[in-house]
Amino acid sequence: MSPNATDSSTILREERKMPNGCAKGWSSMSDSAEKQQCWKNQAFLKVNEIVGLVKYYCLRAYIVFWHELSMNPRVRSSPFSPPPADELILSADDIFSTRRRRLFFTSIHLLALGGLYFCVTGQVKLYTVLFALAVGTMSSIGVTAGSHRLWSHHAYKAKLPLRIILALFQTVGVQYSIYNWVRDHRLHHKYTDTDADPHNSNRGFFYSHVGWALMMPHPAFESKVSTVDMSDMESDWVVMWQYKLYAPLAAILSYVLPTVVPWWLWGEDLLVAHLVAAQLRQVLTLHSTFLINSAAHMWGVKPYDKNINPTENMFVSVATCGDGWHNYHHTFPWDYKNAELLDYKLNLSTLFIDAFSLIGWAYDLKTVPTELVNKRALRTGDGTRKPLPTAADEARTAADAAAAAACTNVYGWTDNDLPDEDRQMAQIYKKSD
């Protein structure tokens, strides 16, 4: 319980026998010594109150961040308080891995603040800033075009050279290995915004944005994660090679090289290069990707399916190279464009895929025909997409809408639950022989 200023003041006066000489106001005191003593007493009580509050909130921060590993909403009053009877009991390995992730996230954010300081004060070279932006864009494309559209959803196919490039780009982002990323993302689509969803937005912005990485997952997630079909990932040697060597690859590609290159090529200070091109760059791209699970599940329009949380969010699309058109994506997760837009400025990952399709490295590009998009938008959309529904369209039954909403819970082209209508109507460009 938070310290009470009145109780604390009373206790202190009783323990120290301090006269409350200010009860009648300063005008009642004629002697200057008494006035000075009263001022000291009041100052001491105020400082004591502030110290008590600081101790209280520091303790609460410690409990939430370090002690409450399962993040039970009934936070204990102290680390020594007895746990609730139904609190999740964690193993020693669970405690170690959770605290390790929390320390990692804390350290990279503190170091990123140092990089931000160098940028704000102008102590970094322009080449270093441009280099950091380039590396950050590469890592974002590795996630969006690689682990997301290629491996999670099989929205297109890629030849070996492009798969290696995307695997290296994805490693730079330090967002778990491709194998783990795909497993969690497929579960996210199958059980969107439920307890089995690792990024459940119904638990609030903080949890869906970053909290899921700082605490133990919900038991519902643990019960479903083993049901995800990962045989296709296990048969891809590029994915398994990256999985086995992920830690050293991530350290070299995300931290060592971005530090050494600016220092070696244009004489940047080594510390500045590390804090700006490695730490600050990595934290910014990390939060950009996290916005897909948080902001893009909370704010925006729903032109394709109003029955789900994901929305169309232009800001997130710019921040993630094209992955913020989330209402469309959850409605048609197997579309390689990840959106209905053809504007590359808001979808750099699509531009990347299309560019490699010109040389044959990307092929079997699957997309949704306009007819199918219109049909779905008229049936379940919120009306923000043109053309607007006609009276006949609005008369469709609730059963049709419910059935259409249920069709969104697929993770991609290889999901057996993908409706036959969608599979038959899909348009596939650059088809393989």
TrEMBL record:
<feature type="transmembrane region" description="Helical">
    <location>
        <begin position="160"/>
        <end position="179"/>
    </location>
</feature>
<feature type="transmembrane region" description="Helical">
    <location>
        <begin position="126"/>
        <end position="148"/>
    </location>
</feature>
<keyword id="KW-0443">Lipid metabolism</keyword>
<dbReference type="InterPro" id="IPR005804">
    <property type="entry name" value="FA_desaturase_dom"/>
</dbReference>
<feature type="transmembrane region" description="Helical">
    <location>
        <begin position="103"/>
        <end position="120"/>
    </location>
</feature>
<dbReference type="GO" id="GO:0006636">
    <property type="term" value="P:unsaturated fatty acid biosynthetic process"/>
</dbReference>
<dbReference type="GO" id="GO:0005789">
    <property type="term" value="C:endoplasmic reticulum membrane"/>
</dbReference>
<dbReference type="Pfam" id="PF00487">
    <property type="entry name" value="FA_desaturase"/>
</dbReference>
<keyword id="KW-0812">Transmembrane</keyword>
<dbReference type="InterPro" id="IPR015876">
    <property type="entry name" value="Acyl-CoA_DS"/>
</dbReference>
<keyword id="KW-1133">Transmembrane helix</keyword>
<keyword id="KW-0408">Iron</keyword>
<feature type="domain" description="Fatty acid desaturase">
    <location>
        <begin position="129"/>
        <end position="333"/>
    </location>
</feature>
<comment type="similarity">
    <text>Belongs to the fatty acid desaturase type 1 family.</text>
</comment>
<keyword id="KW-0560">Oxidoreductase</keyword>
<keyword id="KW-0472">Membrane</keyword>
<keyword id="KW-0275">Fatty acid biosynthesis</keyword>
<keyword id="KW-0444">Lipid biosynthesis</keyword>
<keyword id="KW-0276">Fatty acid metabolism</keyword>
<protein>
    <recommendedName>
        <fullName>Fatty acid desaturase domain-containing protein</fullName>
    </recommendedName>
</protein>
<dbReference type="GO" id="GO:0005506">
    <property type="term" value="F:iron ion binding"/>
</dbReference>
<feature type="transmembrane region" description="Helical">
    <location>
        <begin position="245"/>
        <end position="266"/>
    </location>
</feature>
<dbReference type="GO" id="GO:0004768">
    <property type="term" value="F:stearoyl-CoA 9-desaturase activity"/>
</dbReference>
